[in-house]
Amino acid sequence: RQMTEGMRNSLAAGEFYLEYQPRFDARGRHIRSAEALVRWAHPERGRISPAEFIPLAEQNGLIVPLGDWIMRTACETATHWHGIGVSVNVSPVQFRDADFVQKVRDCLEETGLEPSLLELEVTEGILLEDADRAISLLKELKKVGVTLAMDDFGTGYSSLSYLRNFPFDVIKIDRSFVSDLDRKESARPIVQAILGLGRALGISVTAEGVETNEQLAILTADHCNEVQGFLLARPLRAEQVAELLQEMP
Ligand code: G
Ligand code: G
Ligand code: NA
Ligand code: MN
């Protein structure tokens, strides 16, 4: 409860900020886009993890104004990156907001960001409650021209049927599969199957949570489209991303 009150004031007080974790081409050489990740610098408690405050914000509804602020800030930042896209995590609660699609439109129009440079990362949570509504929302978003990604792929219940019915452009392989790549024999065939699925359906595949050179080598050999993880880059401040883009265009 205390944290709920705190959060409301904190948004107004500017205590939230974004970091951006770069996503790279298959070889881990060139930055293709970056994922916005929200951070909370609490004046007394220090940094609070989103793993702690996002679930609270989802319960108390603050995720809607917070999510609006995240999307707008991310779009505004990406306009300075000259063709490098930005991805934003969208909570199922934001997805329930009747104004969500209009907010996306407004955000693109007001910041001037090219629609395809905004990627929305959703988890299957959005599909669980009312799948028909979710399909029609995703189709509307598609018309707006944004890129749609299914996050944490492979961890849910019926991800395969979702791919058949939903217009996703990108699959993000959950990092649990990636971290198993150099530990468990069964991991590589699973990752290969996801990559084959992506190829067959014309969906780009991003591997998240790449932490070792061995994992990267396997993903590159198996033609994963994009890689992301601490090995390549940690979440960075916007200025650091801009610097990296100058160093390795
Ligand atoms: O950045 P980190 O690994 O600490 O994030 C922990 C969790 O918080 C992850 O599940 C991540 O998806 C989620 N998260 C981080 N930033 C955002 C955000 O901007 N919006 C939403 N909805 N979730 C986020
Ligand atoms: O749920 P989602 O996939 O959006 O989670 C993103 C979170 O994953 C971010 O908070 C980010 O800090 C974290 N992350 C990004 N790269 C790595 C990595 O290489 N290893 C681990 N353990 N976490 C990572
Ligand atoms: Na994500
Ligand atoms: Mn993920």
TrEMBL record:
Top-rank taxon, per record: Bacteria
Signal peptide: none
Membrane-spanning ranges: none
Domain EAL: 1-249
Protein name: Diguanylate cyclase (GGDEF)-like protein/PAS domain S-box-containing protein
Species, as recorded: Neorhizobium huautlense
Portion of the parent chain present: 794 to 1042 of 1055
